[in-house]
Design brief:
Blueprint: H1 11-19, H2 25-39, E1 44-51, E2 57-63, H3 70-76, H4 96-104, E3 107-113, E4 120-125, H5 126-132, E5 138-139, H6 142-154, H7 158-168, E6 173-179, H8 182-189, H9 194-215, H10 217-221, E7 230-233, E8 236-237, E9 252-253, H11 258-261, E10 262-263, E11 272-278, H12 294-300, E12 311-316, E13 319-323, E14 339-345, H13 350-353, H14 366-392, H15 402-405, H16 407-420, E15 424-428, E16 432-437, E17 440-444, E18 458-461, E19 470-475, E20 479-485, H17 489-495, H18 502-522, H19 528-547
Helix pairs in contact: 1-5, 2-4, 2-9, 6-7
The structure holds adenosine-5'-triphosphate (ATP) and magnesium ion.
Length: 551
Amino acid sequence: MAEKVVSLPAAARTLHALRDLGYDMNSAVADVVDNSISRGRAKNIRVYFGRDKQEKFHVWICDDGVGMSSDELKNAMQLGSSNNYVRGDLSKYGMGLKTASLSQASKLTVLSKRKRYHTAGYSWDMYHVNKVDRWEMFRLDKREISKTALSLVANSDAFGAAYFKKLFSGQSWTVVIWEDLKEFQSNHDSYESGVTANNYYYRELEKLSLYLRMVFGRFISGENSARKINLFLGNRKLTAFDPFCRNERHTLEIPLTKKHGNFLLDHRFEPIRIRRYVLPTNPARPGEFKFSKAEAWEEAKGNLSWNESQGFYVYRNNRLINWGGWYKTKTLDEHDKLARASIDLSDEHDSLFKLDVKKTKIQFPESLKNHLQDNVNKGFIAQAKTRYAGSERGIKKKIASVLRQNEKKVNSLASSLVRAGHISVVQNGEDRVIINNKNGKRISLDMTFRELEAGQKVISRSFGTDELFWKMVPSPDSKFQVLVNEDHPFYKIVYGNGKKDKKTMAIVDAFVFTMSFVELKCITTSNEFLFDQMREVASAVLRKIVKEKIL
Ligand SMILES: Nc1ncnc2c1ncn2[C@@H]1O[C@H](COP(=O)(O)OP(=O)(O)OP(=O)(O)O)[C@@H](O)[C@H]1O
Ligand SMILES: [Mg+2]
């Protein structure tokens, strides 16, 4: 028989590969929060995403759960740590803590205390692993543990300091510390001005807040027998985000028969629960079944565009793992955007769904897809379409501006301007568009172009609020398109007069077209706030002109 030879993976390269599983900041934080919920059985979980006195960013994820003894923590810090999972566990691979953390941070430290045990501390440091190329982590001694704990207090505001004092005096707890957030820090530092850098940080913080509210919504509200938690981001207590907006008066549940709503994919396992909803319409549009207010409509799209947030919301043991889109049972359609359905899986189903390590992606088995196509999508999507049509009625009258009717000429003018300006607009990944112009580049997360009619340069739209009169939408196909806000008071003055004032319409269209091209040609990451300001000021002045009855 051949001789057995142990072959260990090379530490530095393997760890690097594992960091690149494709986490982003939000999914990485969520993976660590999973542990606090299901392994720690914590009641209170607090995420800090802030900076220390030297302006270096950090993430701390803290819970008052059962904690770990030194041996347990040592095991937990190992890749592929062993464990006895129970039914309903959010954990699965023994990887999340390490891979999620090290995807965002070069250093991961965990302090943990289990009832009747001393506080334990361990850390992984990528610099060290790179240097020695061995699977070596650090065990913190007593002095290092208290130094680390004290630094959390020292780098917190008064609320945070009080929180840590209370947490550390408790019987059991865990704190996960990420330091040296390479990618985030370098994105932040790439902004030239402190103000724009700060804006970037706050934008990311808001995205994280929304993500956590979505993913852990059921735990926050304690719905569907999920164990209720209090989840904080900094000092802010997060509320649950309900993708089905069930507290809106006009949200409709479209019931399924018992059999269709509880789909038996495999006789060995419990059925998969499916619920269907049709959401209310945009309150800025006509129709009977609207959202209660503009902000609720705005919020309901979650972290995607309204169009992309239609489709299935897949939960695994009450944690939202994937949302938006129809899992190849149909395509996204602007007319179906009010349709959403929940699909509830449990860990029993994992093997049938190919859950990835990040727990954000799964594949649907063919028989479920067929069931969705034949028994779920039908009827329900038709109702969503009818609602949508009701909200569109009367609004679709085409603006008869010469500029809008001269589609071909306008597009060819735009193309030649873009060419002469050496501007490129390309999509990068699923959720961003990059504009390159002579001044530099700008990353835009505005994916509205997917909802717009191709070929049309200037388009009227309801923005849901009356703040801005127009906005430029970068688009990989059309390079840019311009949206004019039907809700802005100036809109009525210009476009409200129907046929009579064709010339005024065309002039204003030409103006917003020009301003938008200027933006495309000149905008960069470091000056984008100037364009926002310019548009805000211009929109406010136009609003004033109407209000003071000057026009
Ligand atoms: N906050 C915590 N409280 C108590 N135990 C924890 C905590 N965080 C991690 N652990 C322990 O560490 C182990 C390893 O965590 P890790 O996230 O790496 O893997 P996992 O949760 O077991 O599986 P997955 O890879 O699916 O996340 C957990 O199984 C758990 O026993
Ligand atoms: Mg985990």
